[in-house]
């Protein structure tokens, strides 16, 4: 039914006497050049480059030798899938025949059935123009090394290639985690899985599931089914799904640590089981954000019996040695209001609610220990005298981590790694578990600091935008936890982060593509190309307000029912375009003012911004979601125009008049004010240009 | 663990005495305005607009009344999911309580258990500012009407709303199909499913699965397992998957017609079962494209016994009344070379291979009929005298369709709807099953023309880019088959197509997002933002060569193993940016030359193109995939500069000198030549500008 394929087949008259493989061999093969740069993230512990590169073409094969197990086969298949995504080459399946393989993989022995904290993850990787070898003690090292190989593969002028290198690598910290809060907004399993793929790509090894909250209890209990039936709006993981998820993570060398937050942050439990609460109930699922009064009754044996049975059930599903009991932010109001509890405090000589919580923590720790697990908890669970196998997860900072270490307790750092606060990758990157108070610890005490975990709290995060809230910034944190403390140049980090971000997109993460659909929703399907371009240009240079100012500046009190459809929900937490513009301004101001190439780029950008609001105005007439950000669009065009004036002044070597200065400074000051929870990122760089233009003869 | 949420909760001191619902009611509600335009596709048979609009907010509910069945519940849930995607509103589940529903849906009775050709798909939809009613005879009409409602929902200055309308709607044709060739390149089930979602959105009702080819046999047979085991490279659908797919399609009001192409296009069958072939074998899966010699042996009873058993097995899986037997493009070479077959022709008085194929078709038709199904086949199966229940699928055009109709046979049109040929949406849109020879048929004969099917042949299509090869253009074909023949204005079609394309993206189709990853592969992860922008700018204005010239101009003979990683694989088949530019040029040339607003837009675009190659040059040094398209990048900058010269001449009212004319015309002629299988779309519009600038006083 192909109207001209018949004619083609006849006219070509091509006789097939050579095999397809033969055909490939006949194609002249230029010697592959090494890629221009190495873009590994995290940086390996030791890397030597040499000359030449290994061509990656359709003849590429991978062979597995040494210790053999299904997990290694799966890792090799996953590797080939990702190599296909990067190159579109159709590749042969993995073999166990090392003789002719391009990449020969060897694992000495198995790793633990249930992955343990501190297991060997080291590997060595040798790439030469004629082949590559990956050696590791166990499958964990193989999994890490395969990701390094994938990051080595680059496009070159002569095809795809991996540069000749010799790498010896192992992590600095044994605990390198990502926590996702699936309770405030439920995150479906497929979204979790692609984030676990992302974790594997940057060598993270702990996935921490924050499973219960005031707003939801997210895992099925068969013993206490009202937990999920009444406490989750129907949005929870079944036990089979959890088992599947744990197997999925294990395949990728990732432990899964479950968190059941108690005795506070637990309203959702009480909807079905008010009898373990300190208040009189009834309770309903919390829809708002913040800290709430409901807390478990730490004085009732019913509570401990309930927890004993629930924890007993959950440790059968979650095989990891660590079990997270939360423990944060109890405001004590329900305890204060309950006479029986006050009575108990007196009779047990518990002087404060902190003492009462310590009593609760100790009881729960005993239950966890009884079930064969070790406890992880937020700072509050650290009370001198608790068993030494506890791990403190610090949301308060290196100081509390150091304090615990001084008394012989293990800790992991999360302060500084809260992904929801909207910090730049560079700001997260500058936080090191070993800096601050931790730097003063003794060598033995330092060993107690196991690593860190980034935390994705989900007040303003759902399945649609969560990838963009985690990635690519989380890759910078992953490097902080894997690579040497001395690997800390933000410029190098950003160059490599841009490359990793592209690779994460091939992996299936949506942090670069989610954006279009959300902007389209704001613009409406009937938007013109010019209007959409104007919205996109604005979206590219704004960021949500930082830290907790989003709550403080909300137009109405936000709840879990608030639609996440505003520009603040759609834009990435860090503006790439804003960063690139700031770099360009710095380059221009640091150089001779006769750097006309940079001046041309700046002029083009500033000119486009100065004209952007004209196109955006039309969209404001169509969409309430566009109209909301009118002021920011005006600001962008205003600072664009201000920047042009400053640029002209600098380029001509004529200082701005004082009238001009005050007018431009006023514009920049106005644009610097957050509006509708958005920050206009280029403002700071344009302010620099105005300052430079305000000095006579600002050219060097 | 939220370091400032405690402070926030205390400082806000907000006492919760009102319910959340109450809160919503307290927000002042502006009267919603009607959206600026209606962007329905396909256009309904009858539509009346009135004043006002129905607000769509978090209080929106849908109720199902009348005939009740699970399929309706699922349709309502799917509707709410898509409404959520369009608005991000959190919406209540569907109810059967009509009292307070925003949208009340009523179906009179069930539709057929197995959906039949010609079943009633009509519906009426009334939207007023206070509510909406959707009525239909059966669930098929409800499914169609829900999609119309979704297309009515637009963003407005006051929130989301659907305009007040009264719609009576039904399709013009009963057979409105999409065929996907899953044999040349296998297309995974999840990709198929999202395309079926797209079909539902534009009211298509037949999904035609082209299941077997020289390059692959794609469905599991339990009777003849070597068909998929040896004939598919492991890429096929299991019977369970097919059942799941059929249920998925049925839920969306879509029939599934399987095609087993015979007696030609069948090499993959013979890998496992050479005994039904006309040659001596052995056979292997074909890797090249075109027409090949292998064909079934039409003279052997073994062949018919095999087909009887296979068809008997397949009709149990595919419940549709129609069964497609292919029948196209047998070159007869294996028959000519087989003495036994030549003998048979003589002894049965079959004068030609066409006669022999007619004999085969009649035998197979009898088998299909015996199994209770009616035959569909390509033009070649139409031989005067075949049973009247046959449907001819015409790849040859309206002429052969009309010829069949004149003899009382049913037909559907596919000629003009081949999506792989790279035609513009407007060109497909202009093809009507009732035009050409069909226009001269009598009224009764016209009734025999059942509709049409677009065809996605998959030589250059895989899971990564298939969505972009089908959508959005297929929506224009869907309108052709649903709406009146008089609905044929391409400008209106394109306006509405842009809106539908955005809606299809919300549905999960990747036709707008796939692009980034493929361009990133070409550019490499280490690309700079400027280089990527240059590649994107080039990609936005090129299209693959049309019709079958891709085969004819391939750098090496393409096979199923050729990676689809070149720019020609990555760019959409129709350039939106190219179309918008051409519209702008037409507007400028048709207007006074003093249309400075349009001139400014043109100047900005032409200037950007003229400078684009400078940035692209850097990328050519990094990537062989970028270097391949160097000449086209040069051409783009050349025609950009030529366009600027022409624009200046027109704007100043000074004709180009004859030297300028010949220089610019030579540039445009060079740019008009396809290179590396790419067409540079703006060239034609720029040629128009050069022509206009060549005439003295070209301004009106």
The total count of strands of chain A amounts to 19
Shape of chain A: globular
Q: Strand-residue fraction of chain A?
A: 5-15%
Helix content of chain A: 40-55%
Profile the largest sheet of chain A. 8 strands, parallel
Write down the Rg of chain A: 28 Å
Strand numbers in spatial order across the main sheet of chain A: 12-9-8-17-16-15-14-13
Structural class of chain A: alpha/beta
Report how far apart the termini of chain A are.
71 Å
What quaternary form is this? homodimer
pLDDT averaged residue by residue of chain A: 92
Biggest chain-to-chain interface with counts: A-B, 94 and 94 residues
**Number of helices in the DSSP assignment of chain A:** 28
- Low-confidence runs of chain A (pLDDT<50, min 5 residues)? 2-29
Provide tags for this entry.
homodimer, 700 residues, alpha/beta, 7-stranded mixed sheet, 28 helices, 19 strands, disordered N terminus
């Amino acid at each position: 039914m192909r109207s001209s394929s018949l004619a083609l087949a006849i006219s070509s008259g091509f006789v097939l006497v050579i095999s397809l493989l033969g055909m490939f061999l006949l194609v002249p093969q230029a010697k592959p050049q090494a890629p221009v740069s190495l873009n590994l993230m995290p940086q390996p512990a030791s890397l030597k480059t040499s000359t030449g590169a290994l061509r990656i073409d359709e003849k590429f094969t991978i062979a597995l030798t040494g210790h053999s197990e299904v997990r290694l086969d799966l890792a090799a298949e996953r590797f080939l899938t990702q190599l296909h995504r990067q190159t579109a080459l159709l590749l042969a399946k993995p073999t166990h025949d090392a003789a002719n393989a391009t990449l020969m993989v060897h694992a000495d022995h198995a790793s633990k059935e249930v992955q343990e904290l501190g297991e060997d993850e080291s590997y060595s990787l040798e790439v030469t123009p004629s082949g590559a070898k990956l050696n590791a003690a166990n499958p964990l090292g193989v999994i890490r090394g395969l990701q390094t190989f994938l990051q080595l593969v680059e496009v070159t002028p002569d095809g795809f290639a991996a540069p000749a290198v010799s790498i010896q690598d192992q992590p600095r910290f044994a605990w390198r985690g990502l926590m996702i809060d699936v309770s405030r907004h439920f995150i479906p399993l497929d979204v979790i899985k692609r984030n676990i793929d992302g974790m594997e790509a940057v060598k993270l090894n702990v996935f921490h599931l924050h499973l219960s909250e005031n707003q939801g209890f997210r895992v099925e209990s068969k013993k206490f089914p009202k937990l999920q039936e009444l406490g989750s709006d129907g949005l929870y993981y079944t036990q089979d799904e959890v088992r599947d998820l744990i197997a999925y993570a294990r395949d990728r060398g990732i432990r899964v640590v479950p968190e059941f937050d108690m005795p506070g942050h637990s309203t959702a439990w009480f909807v079905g089981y008010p009898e373990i609460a300190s208040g009189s109930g009834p309770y309903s699922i919390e829809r708002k954000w913040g800290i709430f009064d409901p807390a478990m009754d730490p004085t009732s044996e019913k509570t401990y019996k309930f927890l004993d049975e629930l924890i007993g059930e959950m440790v059968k599903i979650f095989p990891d040695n660590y079990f997270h009991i939360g423990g944060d932010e109890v405001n004590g109001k329900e305890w204060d209001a309950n006479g029986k509890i006050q009575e108990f405090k007196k009779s047990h000589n518990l002087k404060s609610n902190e003492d009462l919580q310590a009593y609760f923590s100790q009881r729960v720790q005993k239950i966890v220990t009884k079930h064969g697990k070790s406890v992880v908890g937020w700072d509050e669970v650290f009370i001198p005298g608790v068993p030494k196998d506890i791990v403190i997860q610090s949301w308060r900072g290196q100081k509390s981590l150091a304090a615990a270490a001084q008394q012989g307790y293990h800790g992991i750092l999360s302060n500084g790694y809260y992904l929801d606060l909207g910090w730049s990758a560079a700001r997260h990157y500058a936080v090191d578990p070993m800096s601050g108070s931790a730097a003063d610890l003794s060598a033995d005490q330092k060993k107690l600091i196991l690593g860190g975990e980034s935390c994705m709290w989900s007040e303003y995060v759902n399945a649609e935008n969560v990838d963009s809230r985690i990635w690519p910034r989380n890759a910078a944190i992953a490097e902080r936890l894997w690579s040497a403390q001395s690997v800390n140049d933000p410029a190098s980090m950003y160059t490599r982060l841009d490359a990793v971000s592209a690779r994460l997109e091939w992996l299936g993460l949506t942090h670069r593509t989610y954006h279009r659909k959300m902007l389209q929703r704001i613009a409406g399907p009937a938007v013109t190309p010019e209007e959409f371009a104007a919205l996109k240009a604005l979206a590219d240079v704004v960021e949500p307000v930082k830290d907790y100012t989003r709550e403080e500046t909300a137009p109405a009190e936000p709840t879990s029912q608030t639609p996440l459809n505003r520009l603040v929900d759609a834009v990435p937490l860090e503006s790439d375009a804003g960063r690139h513009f700031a770099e360009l301004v710095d380059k221009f101001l640091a150089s001779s003012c006769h750097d006309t190439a940079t001046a041309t780029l700046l002029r083009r950008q500033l000119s486009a911004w100065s004209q952007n609001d004209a196109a955006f105005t039309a969209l404001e007439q169509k969409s309430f979601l566009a109209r909301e950000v009118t002021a920011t669009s005006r600001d962008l065009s205003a600072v664009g125009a201000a920047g042009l004036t400053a640029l002209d002044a600098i380029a001509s070597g004529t200082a701005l008049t004082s009238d001009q200065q005050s007018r431009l400074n006023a514009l920049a000051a106005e644009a610097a004010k957050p509006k509708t929870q958005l920050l206009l990122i280029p403002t700071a760089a344009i302010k620099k240009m105005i300052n430079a233009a305000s000095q006579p003869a600002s050219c060097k």
